Amino acid sequence: ETQTPTPFTVIPNRRPATDEERWIAMEDPVFGKVFTDHMARATWRDGHGWADRRIVPLAPLPLHPGAAVLHYAQQAFEGLKAYRHEDGSVWLFRPEANAARLAASCRRMALPEVSEEDFLAALEALIAADHAWVPGTPGSSLYLRPLVIATEASLLVQPAAEVDFIVTASPVGAYMAAPGGVSIWVSRGYHRANAGGTGDTKTAGNYAASMLPQAEAKAHGCQQVLFLDAREDTYVEELGGMNLVAVRADGSILTPRLTGTILPGVTRDSILTLLRDEGRAVEERDIALTELVEGIESGEILELFACGTAAVVTPIARLVSDDLDVTVRGAGEGGSVADAVLARLTDLQYGRGEDAHGWMRRV
Ligand code: COI
């Protein structure tokens, strides 16, 4: 494989975790709570562009309390994973797609774009420094969290003149435990995004605003919240941090179209592609909650699942709300479409299946 020459200077961590500390930390990590020894970092200044590309020991950031990101959430982020194959090699899944989405998010948040070249070089240099942290156990991976933040100390509501690009890495297993499928709370009082807002942007505010409805979901015994569109309060959009897909009894697929208020998931796109590859009809359109519920009740819709980088493919067993409680028939059953597409996706990611679309990139 070709190795891109890295413009990222490596300043090694002089006190990395010992092998034993790392093994313990990687044994059964809670999602996003364990971090590797290093982070990638680059700094942008207005008029100078990106500079100081470096891999440095993971450490708290010295951040001015007036930093714009802390006040006005001028930031964008990404999530993608590196997978260890059986021969020990490490691979990223569609990192170019995440680079493109981060650039789009940066444009919307009036942040400087990180080029695809810098994005890939940062990931590759960080993974090279922390290769021992890429798990090899089934279902586990190294979750990479690229982040662009406005660091300038300024309370003016205007694009910051100083910005940092940071990438951290976390060994992870499953995001949600889902034996038999998760329960979903349909939020009736809260919406996630509106037209012209930042719903299709991967930025902190969308997730901050989802936490109260997400807590409401949890209080009702559900693992995730589902939002309806803000304009008509009618159509299902997405979950707190993942996309929604339905499988009909005839084998066809139904999922909300990308309206600008929904995050264009890389996993969503990959799964729809794999399902189309096997000849399934995939319909992307507005789906009323009532249509979904009636479909589930009549048996026309057999499965629902959530998909995302963190969630991968998680079957949904129940939809719950104040005036609603429906059970999805095919959830978590052997032979489900969700199981099959999860297997196909993960076979590809872990190097067990053919990569027909050239999605994997060796690092
Ligand atoms: C991801 O799937 O990568 C996300 O950013 C979503 C979040 C729920 C972890």
UniProtKB/TrEMBL annotation:
InterPro entries per UniProt: Aminotrans_IV, Aminotransferase-like, B_amino_transII, BCAT-like_C, BCAT-like_N, BCAT_family
The enzyme's E.C. designation: 2.6.1.42
CDD domains: BCAT_beta_family (cd01557)
Name of a matching Pfam family: Aminotran_4
Cofactor(s) named in the record: pyridoxal 5'-phosphate
Domain of life per record: Bacteria
NCBIfam families: ilvE_II (TIGR01123), PRK13357.1 (NF009897)
Family under the similarity heading: Belongs to the class-IV pyridoxal-phosphate-dependent aminotransferase family.
Protein name: branched-chain-amino-acid transaminase
Native source species: Demequina sediminis
Underlying gene: ilvE_2
